[in-house]
Amino acid sequence: SPPGLLLLTSFLLHVEEGHASPTRLVCDSRLIQKYIGEAKDMEKKVGQCQALPALGCPAVLPLVNFSLQQWKCKSSESKRREILCDLALLVGAAAGAQGQVTQECGARQLGQLYRHANSFLLLLQTFGWEAGPWEPGCSPHSVEQTHVTSIFLTYRKLVQGKLSFFFHNLAKDLCK
Question: How many separate domains does the chain show?
Fold first, then answer.
């Protein structure tokens, strides 16, 4: 879809102009560190927003904690699908929270988180996989939260954990 292509293009340009490619994101470990830093920064900034209300309609968030031992045993494709499920849930939570948070500081941070999470979602959906395109319908383990800050905590944990380890594993094969 054109909006999806626009987001993916802007994400790839954001990665760095000139040499932007999904492979570069995986092979240049400084880039994932940059995204971890941005996730931490967004989490910090939303924590500084004044009087963020509790969400009337709870956000459904993926449980992103994982056992490194179990994670290592999974195939790249199953890791990718799990991360896609987590990201899809996070994007939905951010969109739902955006509709409930009218305070400018919180709404601005939610918009930024939505764009970042959606960009990773689009990137992983379009990355050249043998197994074909991603199909929705997964059901990750989830929890309902009414605090806006928990959306940011979950995103940071996902980027710092599963996504970082996933890119690190892909780099072993792609970046020789």
Answer: 1
Q: What per-residue confidence (pLDDT) applies to 18?
A: 37
What mean pLDDT is predicted for residues 59-73?
91
pLDDT for 140 equals 67
Computed from CA positions of residues 162, 166, 167, 171, in that sequence, does the dihedral angle turn out positive or negative?
positive
As a whole number of angstroms, the distance between CA 158 and CA 58 comes to 19
Q: Are strands 59-62 and 142-145 parallel, antiparallel or unpaired?
A: antiparallel
Domain presence at residue 10: no
CATH number at residue 65: 1.20.1250.10
pTM score: 0.82
Please state, in angstroms and as integers, the Cα–Cα distance from residue 14 to each residue in 11, 20, 29, following that order: 5, 8, 15
Containing structural domain, residue 155: 26-126+139-174
